[in-house]
Amino acid sequence: MGHLETSDKQSVHLVENEIQARIDRIFSNLERLEILSSKEPANKRQNAKLRVDQLKYDVQHLQSALRNFQHRRYNREQQEKQREELMARSFTANDSDTTIPIDETLQFNESLQNAHRGMDDLIGSGTSILHGLRDQRMTLKGTHKKILDVANMLGLSNTVMRLIEKRAFQDKYFMIGGMLLSCVVMFLVVQYLT
Q1: Which residues are CB-neighbours of 49 under 8 A, at least 6 positions away?
Q2: Could you say which DSSP state residue 40 is in?
Q3: Which residues of 163-181 are buried (b: 16+ CB within 10 A; e: fewer)?
Q4: CA distance to 1, 59, 142, 184, per residue, from 7 (Å)
Q5: Which residues, 6 or more positions from 23, have their beta carbon under 8 angstroms from its beta carbon?
Q6: Which residue in 15, 38, 54, 87 is deepest, having the highest Cβ count within 10 Å?
Q7: Which 8-state DSSP code applies to residue 157?
């Protein structure tokens, strides 16, 4: 193995092949030794098998060391090849295709921020509209109560009172429908304009 480390690039393959052939020969000799160790007398057989197993173990380590060396040599050769290719390559100035589209990204980011601000404004105006509707509801409840009090004082008929209540009930559905329609229109405007 020491000869393998010091050999030049041209003869390294020959040395590797020679080492591999010797390892193969050692394996075949070990198989014969294993057969012969089984023919030993019982008192020596265990010791002989132990020595053969130790030799097999050592040869397997030699085989793995050879493979590691071959792997390192292959990696080294690949690195040298890539280094040579890199050094031989001629570099040119960047084409216009390699520019980074920062301006487009900035415009996109500004558009997103504008849309975000617009959505915040819509949410704020929606909240203020809801507060206004609550206030109007309280006012209308108070007004409805006052009208009922006045109507009772004036003595309006029960039929007229039922018609007024029915109209108030229908107006509530018109208001809810109008609110839903407004939300759908706002959603569609935001969806198609951004």
Answers
A1: 34, 37, 38
A2: S
A3: eeeeeeeeeeeeeeeeeee
A4: 10, 22, 106, 82
A5: 59, 62, 63, 66
A6: 15
A7: -
Q: What does 88-117 look like in DSSP terms, one character per residue? A: HPPP-PPPGGG---HHHHHHHHHHHHHHHH
DSSP-H helix ranges across 10-157: 12-38, 42-88, 102-154
So what's the pLDDT on residue 7? Answer: 66
Neighbours of 86 (CB within 10 A): 9
Q: Say if CB 58 and CB 77 are below 8 A apart.
A: no
Distances (CA, A) of 35 to 26, 49, 88, 113, 141: 14, 10, 58, 83, 109
Q: How many residues does the chain have?
A: 194
What the block records as the tokens of 83 is 């280094």
Measure the CA–CA gap between 193 and 110, rounded to whole angstroms. Answer: 15
Q: Are 66 and 16 in contact (CB under 8 A)?
A: yes
Evaluate if pTM is beyond 0.85. Answer: no
CA distance 42 to 52: 16
Q: What is the pLDDT of residues 121-158, one digit of tens each?
A: 999 998 999 999 999 999 988 888 888 787 677 765 66
pLDDT in tens, 71-118: 988 898 899 999 998 888 777 666 556 556 677 888 888 999 999 999
Supply 153's token pair: 């004082």
